[in-house]
Amino acid sequence: MSTISPQTLSDAEQRALLQSARVIAVVGFSDNPERTSHRIGRFLQRVGYTVYPVNPTVSRIGEDISYPTLADVPEHIDIVNVFRRSEYLPEVVDDAIAVGAGAIWAQLGIEHEEAARRAREAGIPLVMNNCIMVTYQRLIG
């Protein structure tokens, strides 16, 4: 059984994070409109965030440039939203630390104890196993 808590930030902390963020990099943003990462990335754009797709397998997603890595995103990232399998989360956390991201948000089903430890040691807030869209709708509306 996992010892990871579903989220490491309280509702109030998650609300504050979502309200203060301006730029979100979506790691694993799919160019397929039927995929959850695509729908949530577009939702985040609709509610006012600047969203950067990060997906090395495509150069564009619709009209948006898709960046191969977090290091290629052209401005400071407030939240790294992760749509990669759990085993890749430590690598994404390391990349987020390297670019000085403000926070990391791993979607439903994505959690990893080593990644949580790395984020904690770097002082980067981390939410795991939690849908950013559902939480936005629940806490902000």
CATH class descriptor name: Alpha Beta
Strand portion, in percent?
A: 15-25%
Mean pLDDT: 94
Helix content: 25-40%
Unreliable segments (pLDDT under 50, ≥5 consecutive)?
A: 1-7
Question: Could you please describe the fold and organization of this structure?
Answer:
This protein is α/β, with parallel strands linked by helices and 141 residues long. It has a single domain (11-139), classed as Rossmann fold (3-Layer(aba) Sandwich), CATH 3.40.50. Helices cover 35% and strands 17% of the residues. It is built from 5 helices and 7 strands; from the N terminus they run αβαββββαβαβα. The chain has helices at 11-20, 36-46, 89-99, 113-122, 132-139, and strands at residues 23-27, 50-54, 60-61, 64-65, 79-82, 103-106, 126-127. Strands 2-1-5-6-7 form a 5-stranded parallel sheet, with helices on both faces. The chain has a two-stranded antiparallel sheet with strand order 3-4. Helix 3 (89-99) links the parallel strand 5 (79-82) and strand 6 (103-106). Helix 3 (89-99) runs parallel beside helix 4. The longest helix has 11 residues, at 36-46. It is globular. Mean pLDDT is 94; it is low at 1-7.
Give the topology.
Layout: H1 11-20, E1 23-27, H2 36-46, E2 50-54, E3 60-61, E4 64-65, E5 79-82, H3 89-99, E6 103-106, H4 113-122, E7 126-127, H5 132-139
Parallel strand pairs: 1-2, 1-5, 5-6, 6-7
Antiparallel strand pairs: 3-4
Helix pairs in contact: 3-4
